[in-house]
Hints:
The protein is α+β, with helices and mostly antiparallel strands and 103 residues long. The protein has three helices and four strands; from the N terminus they run βααβββα. The chain has a four-stranded antiparallel beta sheet, sandwiched between helices. Strand 2 (42-47) and strand 3 form a beta hairpin.
Amino acid sequence: MLSVRPLQASEWPTLAEALGQSFNAPPAAWDSFLDRVGQENMLVALEGDRIVGGCGIYRMGQHWQGRSVPLGGVAGVGVLPDARSRGVARVLMEESLRWMHGN
């Protein structure tokens, strides 16, 4: 069963490995991404207890008609090769929208 939830600090190395495989970049290269996005803005996709992907959401905003409107930018969406073609990225996008709507 596929589920999505916020990243826990201890899971970062596992998610960094998944992102590294997705983007052909070493896991350590993702540390600056985590610093920019913030752990509190990272989501992980799990099949059972196994992390199979994740993404980050940049908190942004703009002024529209004299008021500040919050926005979010989804970035770094990655899914492990052996978990692809099963809707993981779609579920991550759906949950990202729910997360942004609730925050």
